[in-house]
Design brief:
The chain is α/β, with parallel strands linked by helices and 243 residues long. Helix content is 29%, strand content 31%. The model has no long low-confidence stretch (mean pLDDT 90).
Amino acid sequence: MRIAYCEDERAQAVLTEDMIKSWAKERGQKCIVDVFSSAEQFLFELDGEELVPYDLLLLDISMIGMDGFTLAKQIRKTDMNIRIVFLTSDPSHVFDGYEIEAWRYMMKPVREQKLYEMLDILVTELADREEPYVLLEVAGENIKVEQGQILYVAVDGHYTTVYCKDRQLTVKESFGEVLNHLNRDTKDGGIPPFVKCHRSTAVNLSKVSRIGRQSCVLTGEIEVPVSRGMYQQLNQAFIQENL
């Protein structure tokens, strides 16, 4: 497990880092902690990488220079999946981070019991959550998207648009290339997670709630057209997926 910790108060940084290392030793966990004294230092070390190479980011909100919220917003432009924990001495900040989708908030000074509880939960989630993802190049940036967030993909002129729960991402790759990426882990004879419902559209089977002759309905009552030639294949895959 890798943790990045941005904190401009040296004493607090040393104390929290020591607690994390003590937790790792007690739990028998392999844990790497990289401490950064500012948001700017973190971004410099990241060196333009779109995907954050950490399982957890601990961000002090009130840092000199770029604050934790601003750093988190920048990270969220390319990585919606990294867990972010804000550290603050002001409880009112809790209401400021919903748009950033913070995973947790912790009050400063950090208490050992609360830190241990949070790290225990993180280990459990990392073990349970093996969500496959796809890298999409959007406007020159590589964005990591969990497949579980994708509802369907469709041809969009000379491009392909990936429709997620909360956004739409248009990529230059062909429809076939995107579909191959999404179904790359399908075993021989297995049911691919994304199945065509039309020559220019494929749906995430796990998001299909019902299928008709002319359309299928996805999570959120989103309706997608089904062509006559694709109905049987889609319907059979849907039945097998839900047996």
